[in-house]
Each structure stands twice: as structure tokens, then as C-alpha cells.
Amino acid sequence: MKAVCFYFQIHQPFRLKRYRFFDIGNDHYYYDDYSNEEIITRVAHKSYIPAAETLLRMIQESKGAFRCALSISGTALEQCEQYVPEFIDLLKKLAETGKVEFLAETYAHSLSSLTDPEEFREQVKLHDAKIYELFGQRPKIFRNTELVYCDDIAPMIYDMGYKGCITEGAKHILGWKSPDYVYAAAACPKLKLLLKNDKLSDDISFRFSNPSWEAYPLTADKYIDWIAQTPAENQIVNLFMSLETFGELQPRESGIFQFLEALPRFAAERGIDFWTPSEVVSKCKAVDTLEVLHPISWADEARDISAWLGNKLQNEAFQKLYSVSERVRLCSDRRLKQDWQYLQGSDHFFYMSTKHMADGAAHAMFSPYETPFEAFTNYMNVLADFIVRVEEQYPLSIENEELNSLLTTIRNQATEIEALNKEVTSMRNNLEHYNEEHALREATKETPEQKTDEKKVAKKKTTVKKATKKASKTK
Amino acid sequence: MKALMFGWEFPPHILGGLGTASYGLTKGMWECGNMDITFVIPKPFGDEDKSFAKIIGASQVPIAWRDVTRQYVEERIGNVMSPDEYFRLRDHIYADFNYMHLNDLGCIEFSGRYPDNLLEEINNYSICAGVIARTEQFDIIHSHDWLTYPAGIHAKQVTGKPLVIHVHATDFDRSRGNVNPTVYNIERDGMLHADHIITVSNLTRNTVIEKYHIDPTKVTTVHNAVTPLSEDLLNVDPPRAKEKVVTFLGRITMQKGPEYFVEAAARVLRNNHNVRFVMAGSGDMMEKMIILAAERGIADRFHFPGFQKGKQVYEMLKASDVYIMPSVSEPFGISPLEAMQMGVPSIISKQSGCAEILTNVIKTDYWDIDSMADAINSIVTYPAMHKQLQEDGLNEVNQITWDKAGAKVIDIYNKALHRN
Fold first, then answer.
1. Which of B270, B370, B388 is opposite residue A311, by nearest beta carbon?
2. Quick check: A168 and A193 in contact, CB under 8 A?
């Protein structure tokens, strides 16, 4: 018994507009609305929508035998809601079939897992909430940005309640091992790892329409045959790819949609099942633990994080960005928070790569900039303005710790004030009751208790005043 | 293979980039091995590097018979030419040029510069070339820039050997479109007679094809390279300003786009006061630029130190944080490569030939002063940007060597000789 586990990724970043350094401090809107709208609309109509429709048909025609997982970043969801809401409706229909699992990830498609655990957790929570709001599902499996994974990240994922994590079947990690098994994280053995089958995934995403490839043309029959021919004891074949593969990377004319649609039929003939990642995690036992000391990902030839943090520009921008993360978390300004999410998108760093050859071509293909230097300059200018705005809220002259303690004081005082206010009202109520009762009883003598009560109230009031004063001072 | 090269400048006595490029290329070809090069220049000074090429000065080539003794020749021109050579050349005088203004050795005097009677000097050079071509043994002729095209054509007509011309610049670059018809004719004549044309960039190649209407199949680009700098120059230690320094080095002429640099500087200074701008060099637009800087109110931060030579150039570069070359039209532009060798990040215009081969520089359109200002600001404000460009730029420029360019030229020779 063999199974295939499909997962499709949907992500679009908020691309930045051309932002000059004289705009710093003057212009606080950073996004290239035109190209963001143009790209999401084009990709949705060329790829996302027909692909989702195909998936829906596959589920219906196979009577639920076909299952798959989708992972959609928060920024992509926002863009879809704004520009192509019909795609969101389609996704909801997919969710209603119950055969499509939505995965957890960071809201902004960020690299926060590498540097800022708190930010990482917040973003994952934010994303989960968004998925629940739209599709009524609570994700159980985690997929990090660009399949970034290492031993340090595993416990964080497990602690957030996820049973499994999807990552790359990087050759330098696996060695002689096969990606077609479930593994457990070495740093956290209860977390199961699903590894991408590189060869079979890339056959679809990159080689499908390449006439110089020896297996061209690839048919569903042939492809399922390859899967059937893998050693019998293999548990699972993980096929992970971007949904853009269908219609964008591989054009519609190549027959990619028909290929996809025919897969369940041939799979059924050969007794191959389709499982969602959750099913894989619950049905399969981990055969071994996998140690990943240095972060891996599914990008570039090196399959590490050098696509985003491979040169000085990228590292500088990354450090500058996360140097203000604590500050931003303290802020309550909604626009600031929103920009903070959008600026964290890993894509911005991807554009700054100075790699050459094949990898460089991939970077250049997606980049809206002509050169990595332009990408860096533009991003840093935007970031400079963003930091100015953060500073306006909380000046950098105050140390983070000091600020934290001040804010804690303010928060504590706020709760104290609230508690005291409650006490005051309840006292007042008591007092009224008491007076009423008193009137009813027609008692003549003054009660000493009442006085003390009033005094208490008065005392409390002064403390309240002090507290508010303090609070306003620290602000 | 033996090549006869015609050039106008040769280090150390150079006036522009032509001499540096000719020198580098000749040396690069020699490094490839099996090359025997004779390099003809108008006027040698005797201190040229003769280790990789034989140098003949046109000003020592007799074009009319003079009965002189060996000793006399030794005394007169022994420092630049051997008497044997002189007599060998004298045996190949092909016409009576006594009507011309000649010296006691039967030679024409050359200035070796770009004098007002340049066209006359070009013609004289070509007369001498006739004698040289009849004397020397060679397989191929190579002419550097339009000044030597007539000489190349002459040599080809005398010997029937293939002619390769090397276009270092065209009159379209020098004049921003207002070409001198005489110069254009000389250039085009050379291109038509040439068996193959070498251009220093695709930009120049396109000019040759589109403006001179030359068959594209006989035009090939061989990008220039740089000669590694000596330790001595790399280690110059000039005093550094407190502020960041942005430098422009070159002739202050229309071709180099100096006004765009002033405008960009004005924009940078609006938001960032920690920068100084230097426009080193001289030229016919210098006064205009001084006035422009004053008009923009940035004269206190914008400096004109004048023409720099020799070691001063490298001191200037070393003291800079950014090098800028906003040329409107630059056939190649070797100076940003030198800046990169000194570890200075460069900003160049997309209209420069060197932009075709450099990746670790910032490229902007020459007219896009906003973009230029942004790039300047980025390099002086973000240390990672400076460092990345500096280190990767250095690695990159160290790969651009003349022997690679030389090998390409040798390939072209073989093609012209139908040897492959």
C-alpha cells in the first residue's frame, strides 16, 4: 500500500514601490499597488483558479479518494480577498469537501523562525486565526516559510501543538536515506517530519514541459508508474510544489492541468492512495530521527538559507528589521503592525541575492528589481522610514528593558485602576443598597461603618489619580 | 604569429584611455604566447616598456634618402631606434617625399599628441606606415582607433595582409551626435577596408553597425580589461575627510555628463549633510559646472581640485567612498574598474560600455538623477552596501584580465587569416 501526499503552496508578497531616500520621513505608504494587483490577478486567472477548479473536480470525480493540502500565506490571502475574491470562494468550496487540509505557517511568509521565536509564534497564531476565519479549519500540520527547518525550530513547532512539519528532503541531510518515509525531529522526537521527494516533485514543477528532458512527454500513466515502482516498503511519496506550477511555471498549453486531473484515475488502477499530511502523520510511524543542525530549505542548489541570508546586504537588512521587533510588538498602531508584517516577507531578501548562474536566474525571474543593489537600497529606505515611525512611538534612547518595565508598570496600573474602579462601583452599589435598606428600616442613628466606607472610597480615588498621573508621565 | 600594430599612445606618455588599453591588450596577447608584435607609435620617448613588443616610432622612420653615418644615427636616435633598423627602413623608401618638411634624417616630426593639425599628422603617419609595411615581416595588421586607420589601410594595400581595426571610440561618443564629417569619413573608410572590426563594447558595436552601416558579421566585441595595480599604488595612504566622499574623475566634457553629477549631489545634500563631492579633472565644461554648483547652493560641499595625474589619481580614489561615472556615452570606460581595484564602490551610467561586463556596481541611466542620488545615499549610509560592493567588486575586477581579451583578439586574427 502506497500513498501520495500532495501539498500546494500559494504565496504572494506585497512588493514595494520605488522608494527614494528623500521619501524617508515624508511618505509612509510603501507598496506598489499596481504591480501587486496585476500579478495576483494574472496569476490567479492563469493558474490558481483553474488549478483549484481542477482539484475540486478531482475530489468530486474520485468521490473523495483524492486529497491534498494547501498552504496559503496570510499576505496572499489578503491580496486575494482584495483583488480576486472569487478565488477565496473557490478555496472555501475546497474546504467544504473535507478533503483539503490547510496548513499552518507564518502569516507574512517570514523568516522569523530563524531569529525571533516570539514573533514567530505570534505570526503562526495570526495565520491560524485567519485560516479558521475563512475556512473553518484549525491547522494541525506546520509548514515553515520556503520549507525552512532546523533542530532549533522543531520544539517551537511542537510546543504550538502541531503534530507534524513539512520540510525539504535535502540530500546533504538525508545522505543514503530516502525521503519516502516519515521521520521524527531529533530535537523533539514527537514531532514528525514529512520530507519532499525532490526528484518527483521537480519532475512536475520544473521539467514537465521541457522537450530536451529524456522523459518528455510526461504522462500521468508514466508518472504514476514511477511512483508504483518505488520500493514496496516505502510509506509515502511527498509531492510538494507551488500551485503556480499549474498554468504559470508550466503553461496551460503543455497539458499540465489534464496531467493533474488524470492522476487519481491511474493511481486508483495501481492501488495508490492520496493522503493529507495529517493522515500521513497519524497513519505512519517515524522510521528514524533526523538531525538538522543548520537550517535547510527548498530553495537554490544549496538547499539552505543562502537564498535569503547569503550575503552582507541580506544579513544587514535582516538584522536591522528584527532589531525593532520588540518595539513593534509593544506598539498598538494598526498600520504600523500591518507594515511590520509586510516588510518581513522573505521575498524582499530573496531579491537581494547576489548569486550567479542558475540560482541567480531564478532570483532574477521573480525580482521586480534590476539588480540586488537596487533591491537593497529600496528596502533599506523603506525600513528607515518604518524605523522612524517606530521610534516616534517609542524612542530608541530608552533601552528595551527599561521600556518594558515602564510598560509593565503602565499595564499593571491599568489593571489596578480597573480593579479599583470595580471596587468603587461595587462599594457605591453597596452604599446605595445600604441607604435604601437603611431608609426602609427608618433607623435614626448614623452608622459608623458608612463613614469608614466613604473614607475608603476617597482614599482609593486618590491612588487612582496618582496611577493615572504616573501612566501619563511615562507615556 | 606576427602582428603589426598601429597605435597613437603608449604608456607612460598617455593622454587618455587609448594608450592604457593598447598597452594592456598588447601585453595580454603576448602573455598568450606565440605572438610577435611590432607596435608603431608616432613619437616614442625611449622609456616605453619594450619587454613584450618591438616599438617603432614613426618620427624615426626615414621617408627620403639621407646619406648619414651609422655613428650619427646612433647619436641622434639611438635611445629609441637601433641604427640597423634605421638603415633597413631606409632601404624601403618607396617614393620621393623630399618636397615635405623633413629633418636631417629624412624623417617627419610628430607631436604624438592631438594637435590642431591632427589630420595632417594622421596623413604623415600613414606615409611612414608605407615604409614600415615594406620593411617588416608580419601576418596581420591591427589599427587602434581612427587616427591609425589610414596607416592600416596603406599597409594592407602594400602587402595584401588582412587588416583588423580596433574601435576604442567613435565620433558619435565624442560629440553627442554632432559628428565631424571628415572624422566620420576616415572612420568609415577604415571600417570598410577592414577584414574584421573589434569594438570595446556592444554599445560601440551597435554604433558601428547602425551609424556606419557595417556588416554585423565582421564586427566583434572584445571588452577591455585592467592591468593589476602595483602594491605601491594599492597602498597609498592619503588623508581622509571626516565626511563621506563621492568622486568623479575624468575630463569635464559633455560626453562625461558632469551636470548630472552636480544635480544628483544637490539632491543628496538636501537630506544628507555628511557627504562631500569631488569633481577632479579639467575640460571645457568646468566653469559651467562651478557656476552650476554655486547656483544649487552646494559650493561649500562640492570641490574642483583640477586635473590629477599619476599617483594623485590613486590617492584620490583611495580617499573616496563612492566613485561615479555618469557618462552620457562611454565606449568602455576603464576608470570604474580602477576604482574597484582600489576598493571603491562605483556608480556608472547604463550608457557605458563597461556596464555590460560589470555586475558589482550600481548602474543608473545618466539622466536619472533621482536614482543616482539614491544610490549615492545608499552606499554612504548603509555599511553593508559599501562592503558588499567593495569586496565582491574587487573579486570581480580581478577576474577581468587582459590575457582573456588577448586570447579573443588572437582568435579573431585566426579567423581573419582563415586559419580555423
1. B388
2. no
